[in-house]
TrEMBL record:
PANTHER family the UniProt entry points to: FRUCTOSE-1,6-BISPHOSPHATASE-RELATED (PTHR11556), SEDOHEPTULOSE-1,7-BISPHOSPHATASE, CHLOROPLASTIC (PTHR11556:SF35)
Binding residues annotated for substrate, in chain numbering: 116-119, 215, 281
Protein name: Fructose-1,6-bisphosphatase class 1
Major localization listed first in the record, in broad terms: cytoplasm
Residues in Fructose-1-6-bisphosphatase class 1 C-terminal domain copies: 205-338
NCBIfam families: PRK09293.1-3, PRK09293.1-4
GO BP terms in the entry: fructose 1,6-bisphosphate metabolic process; fructose 6-phosphate metabolic process; fructose metabolic process; gluconeogenesis; sucrose biosynthetic process
Annotated Gene3D superfamilies: 3.40.190.80, Fructose-1,6-Bisphosphatase, subunit A, domain 1
Positions annotated to bind Mg(2+) 2: 113, 116, 287
Self-association state and partner proteins as the record states: Homotetramer.
Pathway field: Carbohydrate biosynthesis
Species for this entry: Amnimonas aquatica
This enzyme's EC code(s): 3.1.3.11
Keyword DNA-binding: no
Length: 341
């Protein structure tokens, strides 16, 4: 184990790249603290009565779990008074959340999906928190949507926490992708107890893979290019690909992307006739943009099939897009099929 804490690593990164403002460091440290608290709440599970439905629906019309609400509240709470943020936007809330009156305001905008894959909570399977950091345009009002509508290429930091057998924080600042593991030992048991410790620097996705992730139950709703691509994977050795492929689907994007960052693969939530009217299933600002930047930084690619995801000019805070990301050769193949190749 490196023994390098998340805070120490951020300060090293500041020295190495000379472009990490103090309030961005604070934004990331406070986000890590929120993820530590969310991890603890999830870890208590049924003991703390946090499982099950909250009895409310979010802006997307989806039923909220208690832990969706708890995670959202934790993130809003820890970030409201530090003076590092201008505002926040959450997948769980209709409108941006401005920093409360009287509290100091900073220059960054934080966007997050507080608990991705929350349908996994009650079955004790991995879930996560995804976040994206943008700089607020000078003179902008972070109570409004406009300052948040920046393309993925404008992100200054992006990452996620995955709450699985271990809790890990994965981060990019535009210089590769790095993994930190939460030392879950009790205070007093180890000097690093409660800290995120650097466990992998420079995660890379192999260009080629034999593993894909897609919700196969939607097969009849897909467009022709995706039908063709998946048919070819399923044909295995006997088909045009000349080799067998394996499939995985965790139903939490965080966990599927984490597997791809760890051992390669391709993830697809493509456009289909069920979600076409909404533009797709996954959210651009809270899921697709941060994950696409991480994947690109690890040597992979991310596309809607028709366009690089990071180049999309957002039109709404809760906009949805098709997502195809992971090993570069596979993503380029699917994009090629969309272009009629
Ligand atoms: P929830 O957070 O509502 O569980 O949604 C998770 C998610 O947005 C994404 O993380 C998964 O990849 C995808 O939905 C799973 O979708 P299916 O329900 O089609 O499996």
């Amino acid at each position: 184990m490196s023994g390098i804490t998340f805070s120490a690593w951020l300060r090293d990164a500041q020295r190495a790249h000379g472009s990490l403002p103090a309030d961005l460091i604070q934004t990331l440290e406070v986000t890590a603290d929120a993820c530590r608290r969310i991890s603890a709440a999830i870890g208590q599970g049924a003991l703390a009565g946090v499982l099950g439905a909250a009895g409310s629906a979010n802006v997307q019309g989806e039923d909220q779990k208690k832990l969706d609400v708890i995670s959202n509240d934790i993130l809003l709470d820890v970030h409201s008074s530090g003076g590092h943020l201008a505002g926040m936007a959450s997948e769980e809330m209709d409108d941006p959340f401005p920093i409360p009156d009287g509290a100091p305001r900073g220059r960054y905008l934080l966007l997050f999906d507080p608990l991705d894959g929350s349908s996994n909570i009650d079955i004790n399977v991995s879930v996560g928190t995804i976040f994206s950091v943008l700089e607020a345009p000078a003179g902008s009002n972070a109570a409004e949507v406009a300052p948040f509508l920046q393309p993925g290429t404008a992100q200054v930091a992006a990452g996620y926490a995955v709450y699985g057998p271990s809790t890990q924080l994965i981060l990019t600042l535009g210089h590769g992708v790095h993994a930190f593991t939460l030392d879950r030992r009790a205070a007093g048991e180890a000097a690093t107890a409660g800290e995120f410790i650097l466990t992998q620097e420079g995660m890379t996705i192999p260009a080629e893979t034999q593993e894909f992730a897609i919700n196969m139950s939607n097969q009849r709703f897909w467009e022709a290019p995706v039908q063709r691509y998946v048919d070819e994977l399923l044909a295995g050795k006997a088909g045009v690909r000349g080799r067998d492929f394996n499939m995985r689907w965790v139903a939490a994007m965080v966990a599927d992307v984490h597997r791809i960052l760890t051992r390669g693969g391709v993830f697809l939530y493509p456009l289909d006739s069920k979600t076409a009217a909404k533009g797709g299933k996954l959210r651009l600002m809270y899921e697709a943009n941060p994950m696409s930047w991480l994947v690109e930084q690890a040597g992979g690619a991310a596309s809607t099939g028709r366009q690089r995801i990071l180049d999309i000019a957002p039109t709404g805070l809760h906009q949805r897009v098709p997502v195809i990301l992971g090993s570069r050769a596979e993503v380029e193949r699917v994009a090629g099929y969309h272009q009629g190749e």
